[in-house]
Amino acid sequence: MGAPSGAEQDPVILGDRPLTVEEVSAVAREGAAVEISASAQQRIQHARTVVEDHAGSERAIYGVSTGFGALAHTLIDAESRDALQLALVRSHAAGTGTEVEAEVVRAMMLLRLQTFTTGRTGVRLSTAQRYAALLNHGFTPVVYEYGSLGCSGDLAPLAHCALAVIGEGQVRSAEGRLLGADEAFTQLQMEPRYALAAKEGLALINGTDGMLGMLALSLVDLAGLVRTAEVATAMSIEALLGTDRVFAEEVQAVRAHHGQSISAANLRALLADSEIVASHRGEDCSIVQDAYSLRCAPQVAGAVRDTLAHAQRVAEVELAAAVDNPVVLDDGRIESNGNFHGAPVGYVLDFLAIATADLASIGERRTDRMLDPARSHGLPAFLGDDPGLDSGFMIAQYTQASMVSELKRLAAPASVDSIPSSAMQEDHVSMGWAAGRKLRRGVDALTRVVAIEVLIAARALDLRRPLCSAPATSAVIGAVRDVIPAVGEDRYLSPEIEAAVALVRSGTVVSAAESAAGKLG
């Protein structure tokens, strides 16, 4: 399905400043409209003038008067240079596999358009406007999962987008209907077929926009998920009769990682005024130290936060960049370069996959502890209504474990791999697209692992009554119970897990906690 209408939102203005990851998400997911600023239009037109001046000359300029890749030494006569661009787009639209999600394609289209607005690529204004038209009317090019090596950019995915822009290939409407790109432009009352001019084909496909789009969307998702994981942690700490003393500010200050400090502060706020925690805070408590999955929670979630902050800085540099080869410079030169290499983005995508796997792993360990009567401090086996007859949440933990195992495999870095291509001209590639694809699968799995912990911890806290959980965690239990009834005898669990996933994905869990605890860091 395409993005929903964003008519109620202010348009995102392109070209006056770099995009934010939140703006990428708004356009990609919520259908926010885009507009090309007046200053950006001037830059686009100026760069086009520079390209046209060079295109009519006999100078050897990569992709303008020469072939591509290993064919860069082949000169193209002036009469064939426009046809060269069409041939490039058609030949590079060689992806295969399943269709890429609409939000990723929309992010990719947006980021390529943003690069056009820098005035470094030399495309015509009318070409940029065709990208904006597809975005604003919910027509999403069909792009396939396999094809990008992440060097010379995301060539195949971007070529499929470019193919749609010229009126070839297929798109999906906002309702998900498949139609020819030419039909979409006819509906938009624009030329159904569009001829590319010198350098344009290369400018449409030579960028890191696919991997960057996936990074931007993942940063938005993970910023919410790390808070949700902290809410789930607080619920599990209460359920397992854990202590909050280890999260004290003076204790955390001894090892003052920024993310750890924020995470510990969130746990203090979430556990404030908990009758359950207070019930075993005295000197008579026989539990000297909690298990690592409870005691070390801010160290792990904090490290995830710091990893996100590093990835955010990389994303901000990329969102302000003009990735193209060759690039139009201020002095009128058109210079070849290697800025299309995806290493900076690929590395942080892989780093985030590691953090995602570990955040899920520690959550699954807390879940397993709540279900084990030998370690849960008085909770019934698997939180069943009648253990033995009822299996309770036994298999929900299996489901968590299967995803955590998958996350560990997905944490293996893609960016350390490289396979030479184009007759050894492109002999070192980033695999950043692959890093982005596996991170997206990891983010989905983490969402589900966290949702299952919330679901199970809510049941465990029900069983701790008459002691009341903290106001923040009680609010989360209320939000869960609005859509998922309290557990009784065994019943079909998958729909309830999916309902919990929806609560996490929508931000409802965090919002409920913040209604009592205040804004979380």
UniProtKB/TrEMBL annotation:
Q: What is this protein called?
A: Histidine ammonia-lyase
Question: What does the UniProt entry say about where the protein is found?
Answer: Cytoplasm
Per its record, the protein catalyses:
L-histidine = trans-urocanate + NH4(+)
Q: Please state the Enzyme Commission number of this protein.
A: 4.3.1.3
Highest taxon of source: Bacteria
* SUPFAM superfamilies assigned: L-aspartase-like (SSF48557)
Species per Swiss-Prot/TrEMBL record: Nesterenkonia aerolata
What InterPro entries does the database record attribute to this sequence?
A: Aromatic_Lyase (IPR001106), Fumarase/histidase_N (IPR024083), HutH (IPR005921), L-Aspartase-like (IPR008948), Phe/His_NH3-lyase_AS (IPR022313)
State the Gene Ontology terms under molecular function. Answer: histidine ammonia-lyase activity
Main subcellular location of this protein, as a coarse class: cytoplasm
